[in-house]
Amino acid sequence: MHKKINKILLTLIASIVFILTFSLTCGAKSNEEIKSFKTLEKGVLTVGTNATFPPFEFKDKDEDQEIKGFDVDLINKIAKKLNLKVNIVDMPFEGLLPALGNKIDLVIAGLTKTEEREKIVDFTKPYFYGKQSILTLKNVNIKQKEDLNNLTIATQIGTTANEFVKKLQEEELNNIKIKEYDEYDIMTQDLVRKRVDCVVLDDIVAKNQFNKHFPELNLTQGSVLNCPTENYCIALPKGNEKLLSSVDEILNDIINSKEYTELQEKYINIKLKSEENEETKSNNSIVNQFLTTLVEKERYKLYLKGITTTLVISVFAALLGFFLGIVLAVLKLTKNKNGKRSLIGKIANFYINIVRGTPILLQLLIMWLVVFKNFKNGVFVAIVAFGLNSAAYVAEIIRSGINSVGVGQKEAAESLGFGKFGVMFYIVLPQSIKNSIPSLCNEFISLIKETAIVGYVALNDLTRAAFSISAASYQTFMPLIIAALIYYIITKTISFILEKAMKRMN
User: Fold this and answer.
1) What does pTM read for this prediction?
2) Domain that residue 465 falls in
3) Over the stretch 345-355, which tens digit does the pLDDT of each residue have?
């Protein structure tokens, strides 16, 4: 009897060992298959999103630095099953697809699959079906398309709502006006302030905004405009078939599981406020706004990080611009044997004209999306972009300073045996730089304020910090005023230090 029991036990143990071995082998094969596709950073899935699209992606008001939402939870589940860590990059919506494949591995941002977008990116299967809605003020009702005539409509730039309203303007309602925004919060606030007549946006987000500004707004379904149903998909760069098929397979499993239902319950099933359940409004005094903006949840730390980013970019860009500007100024003044501007001088002059004749924002985006398209360090790219821009202005300042040095001093130096380089380096440049210091100080101060646009390359500077706090705290006035005061204090402090330095030099 004991022998039979032992045989049965041995058989069971052998079977368990075989099953475990087989499972581990399959698991190893699965991992190898997972590793067969490429990501920009080994072991990391870099995800692009725009955290101004609640409830899909937003910065939680209790933890301002963390991006949360339906899309964020979904992509974390997918990455976990791919054995990858997640790095989420918050970017302007219109910059997401251009950054795909260079800065980010995929995009999940409530992105609708369209024929135009399919030409440049690949899409997974839909994970959500959305529709458009219309927000208006309480006393305005939109019952048909014709009611939009002669109205000013707000939409987010680059979205399907934006494309739909433009098409409506071209084909049916020529008298409507369109205002384009980067963020939903700002355009809804403009609606409340009566700067626009209505807002067209995704239904789930519209419900979120409606609740936030209740009871001032009215919500109308986009079906009155015959808005089509939209498929929210994850976008990937063209050609990464293995990653696409892996994400698609996992996405399909999640959608058909309890996990997806839980996500919907957590984020999507939004109950609209009504007159019966309206909550008592909180104290909105200046003191309360100040405390909410700075003290609550330690939001001042966001400002401190923003100040650090702003100053790092400004200081290093100013140094790069100063030294490169001197070189450009000297090169621009070089002449050939005939006394005319040399070829290298013409090239320097061409560069200066191009930089001074184009917006710094375009230069920054060209650096980020084209020149350094495979470079992830946004701070470095911003320093280079602002440094090269500043160099053109510094070159003209230094050139004016060089021309202010008397010809007699140059001739005296040459008569004492100085060569052209010696005259420029020892006699002319020291005087020209000293004469140019007031203008150089102004250029540095302007540079600090210009860095307010670095949010376009996914950097959290001082201005971006103010917008993040505004979105998280539901305040507008105080976060922006505090940011403005910080900029003022920084520029006045630097001006004071530079003025003292100039007096000491004199």
Assistant:
1) 0.71
2) 296-505
3) 899 999 999 99
